Amino acid sequence: MTEGEPTARELAQEEPTEEKPESDRIDRVRLGRLLGTPDLSWLVDRARRRLEREEPLTGSVTLARPAAAQRAAADRLLGRAPRAGQSLTVRLDAVDEVLRRSGISPDGLAAAVIALTGPVVPLREVRDREVQAWEAAYAPLSPLLATTPQLAYWADRLRAEGLVRRLCRTPEAAHTLLMAGAAALHDLPADPPASLPAFAARVLGEAHALDDGTPLATVVLSGVRALTGFPDGSGAQWRREAWASAGLLRDDVSSTVLSLNLRGSPALDWMADAGEPTVLTLRQLIRGLPDPTTPIVRICENPAVLSAAADLYGADCPALVCLQGQPSAAALTLLRHLHAHGTTLLYHGDFDWGGLRIGRNLLRHVPWRPWRYTAGDYRTAAAVSRGPRLTGTPATAPWDPALAPALTELGVRVEEEVVLDDLLADLKQAR
C-alpha cells in the first residue's frame, strides 16, 4: 500500500470529523476514504448487484486483470500484505467485518453500499413495476377495442411482437403513442375519404403526425391494415394504397377505378354512348358520384375482362367495374355508393389465394354476390385448365366456405382470362 495512506485500523481509530445525527450510524467521511474510492468501485458495484438480486453479501468476488491501484486499495481495505496474481479476490464477509469492527458502518457492508450508492430496489420489484408500467401503457387501446372489436387481434399482436417497445424506449412514451394511435383509428375508415394531412391535423393536432417514418404512422398504418384487410407489402405506392384503403389520401387523383358503361353524369353518359372504358379518379367521385341507374353492376379483378367486353359489346355491354387488384379508395367509394342506392353487385376474381383475399377484402367493405366465383365454378374451370400450380399462403372465402378447400384439393390456379369466354357469355345474356 502507498506510504502515508491510512489503513482500516487507522481509520477506525480516527475521531469523527463532524457530529452526525443519531439516526445516521455510518461515518460517511471515513467510509468514503476507505471504500468509496474509484479503485474500489468494482467491489461496491458487485455488492450492490447482489443486493438487487436479494442475495446475501457472503463469499468472494473476483476482478480479472486488476490495475495496481485497484489491488493496493483492496489490500489496504482488508489490512493485508500486498498480493500478486492475474486476478484479485475479495471476501465480502471480510469487508463486512472490517466495516462493523471499525465502527465506520456498524450495520455492515449492505448499509455501507446503500450509503455510497443510494437506496437499493430489488430487481424483482423493478421488473414488477416495469410490467405494470407497460400494462398501463396499453390502456388507451381498451376504449378503442370496445368500439372496434375487430382490432382485438391486432392489439394482441402489438404486445406479442413488441412493435411498440421497439418504437418507444419507455412505457410513458408508449402510452403517449398509443393514445394518439387509438384516437386516429377510432375515426377510421374515413367516410367520405379525406386528405391524410388534413385528417392528422383535425384528429391529432399536427398535419405531419402521420408522415412516413414516424412511430405514430407505423402503429396507425398497422391498425389500418388490420381494419381493412389490406395485404402485406412495402414501398411508397403500397403505403399510399394502404392509407387509401381506410379513406386517407395523399392526394385525390392517384386513386382510381376503371369502369365501363356506368351512367349518371354527362361525362359518364358520353363514354357509355361510345362504349369505351373510363378511368374515374377519387377526386371526380368525391365531387360528384354517378346516379345509380343500373340495377346490376358486375365487378372483375383484371382489366383484360373489361377490355374484351368493350371490344365485343361496346355501348351494349352491361355495366362493369374493374378493381385491378386490391380495391382502391376510389373503387370502394364508387361501390359503396352503388350499393347504398340499391344496386346489386356481382364479383368475379382469379381462382388463387390472392384472388380470394381481394374478394374477402372487398366483402368487408361492401356486400356482393359471386359471379361464377364459387367452389363449383372453380372445379368446372380447373377441369379444363392447364394453368400453373397454386402457390402462396391459403386464404378463406366467406361467400363460399367450400371454395378454399377446393383450391387446396385441386391445387390449380385459374386466372380470369382462362374463363373469359364464360364471363363474356354472361354479359351477352344480360344485355
Structure description:
- It is a single chain.
- The chain is built from 22 helices and ten strands.
- The chain is of the alpha/beta class and 431 residues long.
- It folds into three domains: 113 residues, no CATH class; 119 residues, no CATH class; 175 residues, 3-Layer(aba) Sandwich (Dna Topoisomerase Vi A Subunit, Chain: A, domain 2).
- The longest helix has 16 residues.
- It is elongated.
Keywords, separated by commas or semicolons:
elongated, alpha/beta, 52% helix, Dna Topoisomerase Vi A Subunit, Chain: A, domain 2, 431 residues, six-stranded mixed sheet, two-stranded antiparallel sheet, 22 helices
| Shape call | elongated
Number of strands: 10
Radius of gyration: 36 Å
Strand content: 5-15%
pLDDT average, as an integer? 88
Cα end-to-end separation? 106 Å
Predict the CATH topology of the largest domain.
Answer: Dna Topoisomerase Vi A Subunit, Chain: A, domain 2
CATH first level of the largest domain: which class?
Alpha Beta
Biggest β-sheet description: 6 strands, mixed
Number of domains: 3
Count of alpha/pi helices = 22
Biggest sheet strand line-up: 6-5-8-7-9-10
The CATH architecture of the largest domain can be given as 3-Layer(aba) Sandwich
pLDDT under 50 segments (min length 5)?
A: 8-23
Structural class by helix and strand composition: alpha/beta
Organism: Streptomyces yanii
Pfam families: DUF2399 (PF09664), DUF3323 (PF11796)
Region (Disordered): 1-25
Domain Conserved hypothetical protein CHP02679 N terminus: 57-263
